[in-house]
């Protein structure tokens, strides 16, 4: 968002300029959050997951060696990698959001 044209009232112009700057900051945070991906690995790196800040699965990699784990262990490894990816994206999202509230 750009700075609005002057109104002729210095106080109103100052407030509008501050609002424009804040809006630009929020837009930047939104853009950064949309690009953020959390990553988690388990089973010695044989299972890797990426998630979005909304918790959607963005990517899943299962190394062929992980197929030898058996269905129960593989399921547990996927859940663990997903949990770690959620923790990662939550931390990243928190850090990005702090940029709006920190001076």
Structure, explained:
The structure is a single chain. By secondary structure, this protein is an alpha+beta fold. Helix content is 55%, strand content 16%. The chain contains two helices and three strands; from the N terminus they run αβββα. It has a three-stranded antiparallel β-sheet. A hairpin with a 5-residue loop joins strand 2 (47-51) and strand 3 (57-62). Helix 1 (10-35) runs antiparallel to helix 2. The chain is rod-shaped, with a radius of gyration of 21 Å. The relative contact order is 0.17. The model has no long low-confidence stretch (mean pLDDT 89).
Instruction: Report the span from N to C terminus.
Output: 20 Å
Q: Name the helix and strand elements from N-terminus to C-terminus, one letter apiece.
A: HEEEH
Shape: rod-shaped
Strand arrangement in the largest pleated sheet:
1-2-3
Strand content: 15-25%
Low-confidence stretches: none
Q: Count the strands? A: 3
Number of helices: 2
Tell me the structural class.
Answer: alpha+beta
In percent, how helical is the residue content?
A: 55-70%
State Rg: 21 Å
Oligomer: single chain
Overall pLDDT confidence: 89
Strand count, sense and closure of the main sheet?
3 strands, antiparallel
Write the layout of secondary structure elements.
Layout (H helix, E strand, L loop, with lengths): L9 H26 L2 E5 L4 E5 L5 E6 L8 H31 L2
Antiparallel strand pairs: 1-2, 2-3
């Amino acid at each position: 968002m750009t700075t609005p044209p002057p109104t002729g009232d210095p106080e109103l112009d100052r407030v509008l300029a501050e609002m424009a700057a804040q809006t630009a900051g929020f837009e930047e945070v939104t853009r950064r959050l949309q690009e953020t991906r959390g990553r988690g690995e388990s089973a010695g790196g044989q299972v890797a997951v990426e998630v979005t800040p909304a918790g959607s699965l963005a990517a899943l990699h299962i190394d062929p060696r992980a197929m030898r784990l058996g269905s129960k262990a593989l399921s547990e490894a996927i859940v663990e990698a997903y949990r770690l990816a959620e923790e990662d994206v939550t931390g990243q999202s928190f850090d990005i959001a702090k940029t709006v509230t920190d001076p």
